[in-house]
Amino acid sequence: MTGRARALRLKTGAVLPALGRATARVWSGPEPAARYGEYLCLMHAVVRASVPLLTAAARRCAELGAADPVAGPLAAYLTAHAVEEREHDRWLLDDLRAIGRDPEEPLRRVPPPVVAELVGAQYYWLLHHHPVSLLGYVAVLEQQPGAPELPDRLARLTGLPPRGFGTLRAHVALDPGHRAELDAVIDGLPLSADHEALIAVSALHTVSAATRLFAWLADRRLLEVSAR
Q1: Is the dihedral of CA 43, 49, 55, 60 positive or negative?
Q2: Is the pLDDT of residue 207 over 60?
Q3: In this structure, how many other beta carbons lie within 10 angstroms of the beta carbon of residue 14?
Q4: How far, in Å, CA of 225 to CA of 228, rounded?
Q5: Domains (ranges, CATH) in the chain?
Q6: Is the N or C terminus of the chain more exposed, i.e. has fewer CB atoms within 10 Å?
Q7: What is the pLDDT of residue 146?
Q8: What per-residue string of b and e applies to 162-174 under the rule 16 or more CB within 10 Å gives b?
Q9: Contacts of 82 (CB under 8 A, 6+ apart)
């Protein structure tokens, strides 16, 4: 990791503590088992957009063509990463099934506006400005994969079956490698100062929206969920 990737980490690192506090509030609140089920539903709403986002960004790179020196190598990374992200939304549905929740539940729900805010901004930037913006989004989602003991700790906290934490276990294992790969891409692309600024804006927006998303989950009343 050299200058550009390190600089991006420093910028997001300044605001990540707020996201960490919002996440901690989720697990320190009442009804942790019901809240974990809600967490899975909410994460499915976000993760189901990952492959479509990556695919849309790669398609936009193809439209920009050889005249854009960033587009070709960026498209190669986005396409490969889309393959790596396949089925991750299904993993979350499998976790829901494992904890006794209906795996079709997230598909019936209207996601809260903060999900559209988090994901939708990426569509705007990649379609109407430059698809390099998506690197900021990916950087935040994979910057802090969580401690290796997190899945077991949440299983104990919630009293839910350990097999219901498969997605967390997978990401704890996979995300460090994904982040190292992304760092190499950011450092290797022929980025202009404008590209770097766009990646940073995208990353900071992602932290801000993700913080509001977890705050929404922490504050959500779960009486109707726990009564099921």
Answers
A1: negative
A2: yes
A3: 11
A4: 6
A5: 3-220 (1.20.910.10)
A6: C
A7: 67
A8: eebbebbbebbee
A9: 50, 51, 54, 55, 58
The token duo for 94 is 């499998």
- Quote the tokens at residue 148: 């290796």
- The Cα 126–Cα 124 span in angstroms is 6
Specify the amino acid at residue 221. R
* Distance separating alpha carbons of residues 51 and 85, to the nearest angstrom: 6
C-alpha 133 chain-centroid distance: 14
CA distance 141 to 150: 16
Task: Quote the CA–CA distance of 219 and 22 in Å, as a whole number.
Answer: 10
What is the number of residues in the chain? 228
Confidence of residue 223 (pLDDT cuts 50, 70, 90): very low
Residue with tokens 């969920």: 225
